[in-house]
């Protein structure tokens, strides 16, 4: 019997080559599109560069437009600067610095894609000379979290604490850590104000009070984070107090019922004796019918 050899297709030498090629193409796309990124915090100043230099004398022959998401922000036409109402009194041009757009006291609503267009006059008409887009991302820093002890009733030897912070952006993630390990939390809530877009976050944690703890509350948002540490030291008198409390419960559940039973038995015997005494008093006495002298002697 002759066995024919099956020719198999050899595996590719570089199985991840297609992924590398894809990433290269994506990078080339972003480079060719001229998309730059600027990250700032709320109330900071952002400088968005147009990446194009012209002299003051050339301003009369150029038109420069800055717009955000297809809405006008600022224009420079024949050397005259016009700023749209939403950005007025907090936006200025920096012509000497690559025709930059400078936004003061940033708001969350300022985040988005800004586009700079430079037009030059050519044969009596304006033609596009330069185009660039800048992505502005804005964060609002969360303040250091506040950790408080809750007064709610908890199981024996268990304490509950709460970590909270508010007024940040983007959406945060909150967690509890001890000795490099993440702990299980309870009642974690994240809410956002629809007007300001700012977030509020809180989380609760339960721990055993019979041992020492160093608990870390960590809040991550974007590429930033804030944290707070809660330290707990077990009371030195805690074991004695626990033992005394245990004896107290033992007395309540055993000694008191026994005392109650003894009291009931005592009262029952007392009642029985009282009943017998009453019966004895009601029993009729025998009448003596002999001589009176003998009766008087008897008495």
From TrEMBL:
Q: Where is the signal peptide?
A: 1-34
Q: Which InterPro entries match?
A: CD80_C2-set (IPR013162), CD80_IgC (IPR037676), CD80_IgV (IPR042711), Ig-like_dom (IPR007110), Ig-like_dom_sf (IPR036179), Ig-like_fold (IPR013783), Ig_sub (IPR003599), Ig_V-set (IPR013106)
GO cellular-component terms in the record?
external side of plasma membrane
The reply on keyword Cell membrane is: yes
Membrane topology per record: Single-pass type I membrane protein
The UniProt record lists the Ig-like domain at 15-133, 145-231
Output the PROSITE patterns linked to this UniProt entry. Answer: IG_LIKE
* Gene Ontology BP terms: cell surface receptor signaling pathway; cellular response to lipopolysaccharide; immune response; negative regulation of T cell proliferation; positive regulation of T cell proliferation; T cell costimulation
Q: Which parts of the chain span the membrane according to its record?
A: 247-268
Protein name stated in the entry:
T-lymphocyte activation antigen CD80
